[in-house]
Amino acid sequence: MRTAPANASRTTSRLAARADRYPAATAWQRTTGSAACVWMVVFAAFHAYWALGGTFGLPPGESLVDNTPLFIIDLIAIPMNLGGAALALALVQRWGLFFPRWLVLCGAWGCALLMVFHALPAMVDLAVYLAGRRGTPLEGMDRFSVLLYEPYWMLGGLLFTVMALAFQRRTRRTAAQGA
Questions:
Q1: How many whole angstroms from its chain centre is CA 80?
Q2: Which of 40, 51, 126, 163 qualifies as a cystine partner to 84, CB 3.0-4.6 A?
Q3: What's this model's pTM, rounded to 2 decimal places?
Q4: Which of 46-50, 125-129, 170-174 has the lowest mean pLDDT?
Q5: 14: buried, middle or exposed (CB in 10 Å: 19+, 13-18, 0-12)?
Q6: Under a CB-based contact definition with an 8 Å cutoff, are residues 114 and 87 in contact?
Q7: For 63-110, what is each residue's pLDDT tens digit?
Q8: pLDDT band at residue 2, thresholds of 50, 70 and 90?
Q9: How many angstroms separate the Cα of 143 from the Cα of each of 9, 53, 66?
Q10: Which residues are CB-neighbours of 134 under 8 A, at least 6 positions away?
């Protein structure tokens, strides 16, 4: 009969052996992963600040406390961003290799695609604005969204895209390694 500590030890050994099959993240990958983690923590901090009634970073006269749907979204965003921060680190730290590869990649690609597709329409609007082809001036919420909020989302999406690709390549099994 196996004891729980013996089973845990065997499982830990198997996971460590699996993690040892893959190369460590490079310096640029760790830097990019740290940047993605900071991106998420900063966004979580802003959401917490806004949920507590803060208005810095919002358009003039805007408050999330007075807008119930946005307030609820804000409260949901805080733990999601903190989870994203952990995911960013899992992509570059050895402990991230202890999770199933498909799970880490699903999370990374999910974050990347969500952020990029969230920001893409505003990035088109930003390009039109910067080219001087926008028919109406950017004011209020549009100005906030196009010049600040959506470019921040795009930055996060690009960071996670780079990290997802790097993790995918770093953990790819070759035919010589077997299935």
A1: 9
A2: 40
A3: 0.81
A4: 170-174
A5: exposed
A6: no
A7: 888 889 989 998 999 999 999 999 999 999 999 998 999 999 999 999
A8: low
A9: 56, 21, 21
A10: 125, 128
The tally of CA atoms less than 13 A away on the side-chain side of residue 138 is 19
Residue among 107, 98, 106, 111 at smallest CA distance from 17 = 98
pLDDT in tens, 121-156: 888 888 888 888 887 777 777 777 787 788 899 999
Query: Following DSSP, what letter does each residue of the chain receive, concatenated?
Result: ---HHHHHHHHHHHHHHHHHTSPPPPHHHHHHHHHHHHHHHHHHHHHHHHHTT--TTSPTT--STT-HHHHHHHHHHHHHHHHHHHHHHHTTSGGGGGS-HHHHHHHHHHHHHHHHHHHHHHHHHHHHHHTT--SS---HHHHHIIIIIHHHHHHHHHHHHHHHHHHHHHTPPPTTT--
User: Is the CB of residue 171 less than 8 Å from the CB of residue 97?
Assistant: yes
